[in-house]
Amino acid sequence: MLAGYPLLSLAVWLPICAGILVLATGSERNAPLARWIALLGSVLAFAVTLPLYLRFDAATANMQFVEFTAWIPTFHINYHLGVDGISMPFVLLNSFTTILVVIAGWQVIQNKTSQYMAAFLIMSGLINGVFVALDAMLFYVFFEAMLIPLFLVIGIWGGPRRVYAAVKFFLYTLLGSLLMLVAFIYLHFESGGSFEIIDYYALPLSLPVQILLFVAFFLAFAVKVPMWPVHTWLPDAHVEAPTGGSVVLAAITLKIGAYGFMRFNLPITPDASHYMTGFIITISLIAVVYISLVALVQADMKKLIAYSSISHMGFVTLGIFLFNNIGMEGALLQMISHGFISAAMFLSIGVMYDRMHTRQIADYGGLVNRMPVFAAFLMLFSMANAGLPGTSGFVGEFMVILAAIKVNFWYAFAAATTLIFGAAYTLWMYKRVIFGAITNPEVAKLTDINPREFGFLAVLAALTLAMGIYPQPVTNVMHVSVDNLLAHVAQSKLP
Amino acid sequence: MTAMQQLYLLVPLAPLLGAMVAGLFGWAIGRTFSHLVTIAGVAVSCWASWLIFQDVQAGHSYNGTVYTWITVGSVSMQIGFLIDSLTAMMMLVVTFVSLMVHIYTIGYMRDDPGYQRFFSYISLFTFAMLMLVMANNFMQLFFGWEAVGLVSYLLIGFWYTRPTAIYANLKAFLVNRVGDFGFLLGIGVVLAYFGTLDYAAVFAHAPEFSSQMISLIPGSSWSLMTVICILLFIGAMGKSAQIPLHVWLPDSMEGPTPISALIHAATMVTAGIFMVARMSPLFELSQTALSFVMVIGAMTALFMGFLGIIQNDIKRVIAYSTLSQLGYMTVALGASAYSVAVFHLMTHAFFKALLFLAAGSVIMGMHHDQDIRNMGGLRKYMPITWITFLIGSLALIGTPFFSGFYSKDSIIEATHIAMEHGMAGAGFAYFAVLAGVFVTAFYSFRLYFLVFHGKTRFHAHEPNELDAGHEESEEHPGEEHHGMPHESPWVVTVPLILLAIPSVLIGYFTIQPMLFGGYFNGAITVDGALHPAMPDLQRDYHGAASMALHSLSGLPVWLALSGVVLAWFFYLRRPEIPEAIKHRFALIYVILENKYGFDRFNDWFFAGGARALGRFFWHVGEVKIIDGFFVNGTANLVGWFATVVRKWQSGYIYHYAFAMIIGIFALITWFVRVV
C-alpha cells in the first residue's frame, strides 16, 4: 500500500512545508495557531517515517525506499534518496525529536513563536535530507543548509552571549565542510563525472590520495561529532542555545558527524581509514578521559552535559574505528541512545531553567523536596547518562568496550574509565542539584513538573528503559548494513 | 513453557511487580496497600524459591534463555536463568531475608514520609539481586550487579536531606564503579577469548585456555586465566567491600537499618562471594589469582576487625564485623573451599541480618540514638531484642553448635590445609583468620555488654535531632517514662525470632549436605588434587556434633572465649582499663580512629586529584590553549592581519604609484637574475 509513496521525500519535505506554513501564520497574535500547526506537522512528519522501520527489509544491505530523479543533469547531479540500516534509525530519531522540541517550546517560547517553530521544522526536514541523500551534492546542500536554522535558533533565541556562540558554531562547522566540497569535486572527476556516493565506494584510489580525501572528510565530520580538539564550539553553543536548540544539537546534529564517517570515510577511503585508525582512536580516548575530567569541574549544568556529550561521542568514534561489528553496532546504539538521554538531560535542565532562570549548579540544592517527580525522572536519566545497565546508555558503551578489548586491552581500559568518571560527574551534579536541604529560598517556591513536562519526560524515560532492556529490535535492522560496511572497509582499494 | 519455568520467572517478577506498584502508585494506594503488595510479592517469590529448591534437591537443574537481549554477528547475549544448587540456595536466602526485612520495615519505618518509596526500593532490590544470582551469563550478571548497586545508592541516600547520607551514597556508588571497571574488563576479556558470555560454554572451554599466555604490556607475559580472574575479582572487591575498596561500606550505614541488614550485610555485599564461587571453574585454573584472593580476604578479615573495636556507633560496629566476615568468606574462596565460603555466606546472612535488625530494634528503643556509650542495661527493657542479639553474637563469634561456628571453623581449617600445602599467602591468611576469631569475639561482646549489660547510661538522653523527619512519635501510652527504652512491636520482634532460629540451627543441619554431601556438585568445581582443602576437610569430618565437641580442644574456640572474657573484664568490670589503653597507645588509637587513613587518602588523592586535573584541563587545555590560542587566536590573527593590510589602502595615488614602482623594480630584478 505504501510502496508507491515517496516516503523519504515526505520525510524531508513534509516538515519543511509545515515549517513554511507555520511561518505564514506571521505575528505573535497567531502564536497558538503556529504551535498547533507545528505540533501537527511534526507528528505527521514522524508518522510518515514509521513505515521506514516497519517495512524495512533487514535482509539486504542495498539502499531502500529509493527515489531517483535527475536534478542538474549537466553535472550529473541527481535527486537520489535512499536509506539503509545505518541511516534509517536516525531519520526516525530526528523526526521524533522534533515533536519533543515543539512540545518543549510550547509555553516557554513567547517571542517570535512562529519563526521558532518553523526553524525547527525546517531543520528537521533538512537533517532528514542529510541522512537520506545518496548524491554527494545533494548531501552537501542539506549538510550546509541545516546549519542555517540552527544558527538562527542560537542567535535569536539564545542566551546573553548568543552571537559569539552562533558565529563560533557556524565558522567552526563551515570551515570543516569546505574541504569536503573539494573532496567531492575531486571524486567527481576521478569517477568520470559521477556524484553518486555509492559509485565512489568502488573507486580505486592510491594511498596518498585516500589520506588527503580522508582528512578532508574527517575535518568536516570531526567538527560535527565533535572530536577533541575541535570540540570547543559545542559547550558554547549549548550554553547559549535555547532548550530546543540544545536538544536538536545534542540528539541529532552530533550524529551527523559520526554518520559521515560511516557513509564516506570508511567505504571511500578504507586504506586511509586503517592508516589513520590509531590516531582516531587516540583522540577518541582523549575525548573519553580528558573531557570527562573537564566535565567534572563545570559549574554550569548545560556545560557539564555538553562535555558529557563529547565524552559519549568519543565512544561512538572509538566504536566506528575498531572495525568490528560489535564496535560498529555499539557505536550506532550509542548514537541513538545518546539521542534519547542527551535530549532528556537538556529538557530536564530546561525544566529547571524555566523556573529558576539559572543553570549554575550552586544555585540549586534540595530540589527533591519540592519536585519529587522531576527528581525521579532526572535520577533515571542521570543513571542512563552514567551508563547503568537496564538503560539505553549501557548498551552502546558496553558493546564498544567489549569490542575494544578484542583490538587492544588498553583501549578498553581507557574507555572503561567512563564507568567511574561518567558516574562521578553526573551523580555529583545530581547530588548538588537535587539532594540535600533547600538552601536557596527560590528553590523553596518551586512547583513540580506540569503534565506537559511529565509527558515528554515520561516518553523519553520509556524509550531509555525499553532500549536498555531489549535493544534487539534496534540492532536487527543494522546487522546486514553494518556487515556490508565492514566488508567495504576490509577491502583494499589501492589500485 | 513448563510449570517449573513459569515458577523461575515468577521468582524475580513478583518482587518487581510489587516494587512497581508501590513505587509508581504508592501515592494512590496508600501505606497499607503498599506494604501489603510488596510483602505479597516477596512472599510469593520466597515460596516459589522453596519449591525450586526442593526441585533442585530432587536432582533437576535448568539452564535456559528467557529472551535474546542482543545479537551481533556470532555473539548472542541473552537474559536467561541458570538454576542449580548454588542458585537455589541463594534464592532462598535472598527471598527469606528480604521477606523478614519487609515485615520488619512496617515497624521500623512506620512514621517515615517515604514509606511507600522505601518498600518499592527494597522490592526492587530483591528483584535485582535475584536476577544477579539466577543469571546464566556474564552480561546478566553485570546487569544485576549494577542494579543492586543502584538500589543500594538509592537506599543509602534514602534520607536525602542529610549531608552525610548523600555523601555516603555517592561514595558507595563510585567505589563500586571502580570495582565494576575491573569487572567489566574481565567480562570483556572473557568475550574476546571465548567468543561467548554464556557460563556453561565458558566453563566448558576454560581448561583449554589454562596455559594460554597473553601480553598486556609488551614484553611481559601473563596467564590469561590470572588476568581474567583478577579482573573479575576486582569487581568482587568493590561489591563485597574488600580492602582497598571497602571504604564505602561503613558509610553506607547512613541508610535506614533494614537496608543495612538486607543489602549491606546479608545479600548484596555477598554478591562478590557468590560470583567467585560461581566462577570456580575459572579461578581453579589460576594459582596466582587464588593467592591474590586469599591475601586480600585475610587483610580484610583482620584489619577491618580491629576497626570494630573502637567504634561507638552500634551500626558501625556491626558494619566492620560484616567487612571482617566478608574477608573470611574471601579467604575461603582463595583456599578453593568455595562451598565453605558459600556456607558461611548463608549462615552469615541469617545471623548478621539478625544482628542488624536487632540493632535497629535497639535504635528504635533508644529513640534513634545509635551511640552505644548512651546505652547499657537494655536487657531489662527489651528482652526479645536482647536474647536475639545475644544469639546473633554467639553465632558470629563461632560458639560451638551455632551456625557461625560450623562455617567459620571450616574456613579456618581450610586455610590451615592450604597453608600446609604451601600455598602462597596462606600462612598469613591462617594467622589472620585465627587472630580474627579473637578480635571478632572481643568487639562483638564489647558491643553486647555495652548495650545490654552494665549501668544504664541513657537518662540524660535527648532525641537525636538528625532524625527530625523520622523521630518516633510518642504513641506508646503504656510507657511510664516517655524517654525510656521500650521493646519494639511484634512486626519487629517476629522477624528477629524467625532469623534467630536459623542463626542457631542451620549450621548444624546443613553442614553435612552442603560441604560434604555433594550438594554443590555440578555448581562448584574444585580441582581436588591441586587444591585439597575440601577433600582434606571431608576426611577429618565425622558429623556435626563431633565437629563441635572436637573443637573444644582446638585453638579457635579458646580464642573466642578469651575475647569474650576480655570484653567482659574491660567493659563491665574495669571500664578504666580501655580508657587507659587508649591514652597509653594513642598512636594506634589514632590510626584506628582514622581507619588507617583510607578515607583521607581517597578524598585527597582520587577525589581531589580528579578535580584538580579537571580544573587544569579546563583552564589550561580548554580555555587557554584550544579556545584561547587556536580558536580565538585564529580569529584575532585574521583581525590583526586585516588591520595591517588595511593601512596600505590609504587612498592616496602617490602611495599606489610608489608601490607600483617598487613592484616593477622587484620584478625586473628577478627577471634579470633568472636570465
Please give a handful of descriptors for the protein shown:
A: 495 residues; two-stranded antiparallel ribbon; 22 helices; 73% helix; B: mainly alpha; two-stranded antiparallel sheet; 71% helix; globular
Report on the structure:
The complex is a heterodimer of chains A (495) and B (675). By secondary structure, chain A is mainly alpha-helical. In chain A, 73% of the residues lie in helices and 3% in strands. Chain A has helices spanning 7-24, 31-54, 88-104, 113-132, 136-145, 147-157, 162-190, 197-201, 207-224, 233-240, 243-268, 270-296, 301-320, 325-356, 372-385, 392-407, 409-416, 418-433, 441-444, 451-469, 472-476, 479-490; strands at residues 64-72, 77-83. Chain A has a two-stranded antiparallel sheet. In chain A, helix 15 packs antiparallel against helix 18, helix 16 (392-407) runs antiparallel to helix 17 and helix 16 (392-407) packs parallel to helix 20 (451-469). The model of chain A has no long low-confidence stretch (mean pLDDT 89). By secondary structure, chain B is mostly helical. In chain B, 71% of the residues lie in helices and 4% in strands. Chain B has 25 helices and 4 strands. Residues 461-481 of chain B have low confidence and may be disordered. The interface between A and B is large, with 57 and 50 residues.
